[in-house]
Design a protein that fits this description.
Length: 313
């Protein structure tokens, strides 16, 4: 697969995550989350709460594993014993939405989205005391959607996409939203006419990498005002299948490679020139991510998951 050796083949893997210290690996299946010891590949835990797990995150010191499902239930496990230590779930007063959430340096304080009459709003949640939840945004635009992307250590900020129907009611407008972890201060960046499926900030080259619907990848400068480079990924020899759609993308921590996942294909690009180095048709692909030590490529599909030995030079 992708001209890499398969180190470990897993069952259904909607998402695969490795701990920051590279000691644990977990993946989500239809009804449970499985955790392995990477050195021995022995199963160390089989977590049945929450049902239908989606997003996985390890705390920054690896002491906790957070698992969130599509119904807004979040469970927090101690990674020493894998006992459930905290659980919150969506209710009438706190309507948590499906999707990714952000952890902070405090293991029991997170940023997540809740739903109100206009759509999504960003909140700071104290898992120890739900009554201490603070609403950060109060957007009044209709059909507001907030999607989380990543934590940017250099500015201690979390990156989101904010999208909403404009005042004329005839199109969506997109903005990048940054929230400073310590102060909750929000800044917005926009590029007229630019819309996207997902975006990540590349701290090595100080640029934003944007994925668009038309199988196009774009590099935008740090002020998010000038397009520096763009390329159509699926043209010529890299032909797409009818109806194929984007699911996920990720950049290696050394800034050299980008892996793009479509539901029927995975591409690995060289950042320098967007040259496609590896391409493989993989049915029902939903996730591909480099480990932060560059040793592995983690690939998830509806049928199987794969831990691959990264041999990119």
């Amino acid at each position: 697969m992708l001209q890499m050796n398969i180190i470990k083949k897993l069952k259904t893997s909607f998402e695969i995550k490795m701990s920051n210290g590279h000691g644990l690996l977990c993946h989500t299946m239809g009804s449970k989350t499985i955790v392995y010891d990477i050195k021995s590949w022995e199963k160390v835990a089989e977590l049945v709460k929450p049902k239908n797990p989606g997003d996985l995150v390890f705390s920054r010191n690896d002491d906790y594993l957070y698992i969130k499902n599509a119904l807004g239930t979040l469970c927090v496990y101690d990674t020493d014993t894998f006992q459930l230590v905290k659980k919150i779930q969506s209710n009438k007063s706190l309507k948590l939405t499906e999707g990714r959430f952000a952890i902070t340096k405090d293991p029991f304080k997170i940023f997540d989205t809740v739903m109100d009459k206009n759509g999504d709003q960003l909140v700071a949640i104290n898992i120890d005391n739900i009554g201490d939840t603070k609403v950060i945004t109060k957007y009044e635009e209709k059909i507001t959607i907030i999607n989380y992307h990543q934590y940017i250590p250099s500015c201690d900020s979390h990156l989101y996409t904010l999208s909403y129907v404009n005042k004329a009611g005839n199109m969506y407008e997109y903005k990048l939203m940054k929230i400073k972890e310590s102060t909750h201060e929000i800044s917005l960046l926009s590029h007229p006419g630019l819309i996207w499926l997902s975006v990540i900030y590349d701290p090595i080259h100080d640029v934003y990498i944007v994925m668009q619907e038309n199988y196009k990848i774009i590099i935008v400068d740090s002020s998010f005002t000038r397009v520096l480079r763009e390329k159509a990924l699926l043209s010529g020899k890299n032909e797409r299948k009818p109806g194929m759609y984007f699911t996920y993308f990720h950049m290696s921590s050394d800034g050299k490679y980008i892996v793009v996942t479509y539901d029927e294909m995975i591409l690995i690009l060289r950042f320098e020139d967007f040259e496609v180095l590896r391409m493989e048709y993989i049915s029902n692909a939903c996730f591909a991510e480099f480990s932060d030590d560059h040793q592995y490529l983690l690939v998830g599909t509806w049928r199987n998951g794969y831990v691959l030995e990264n041999n990119l030079q």
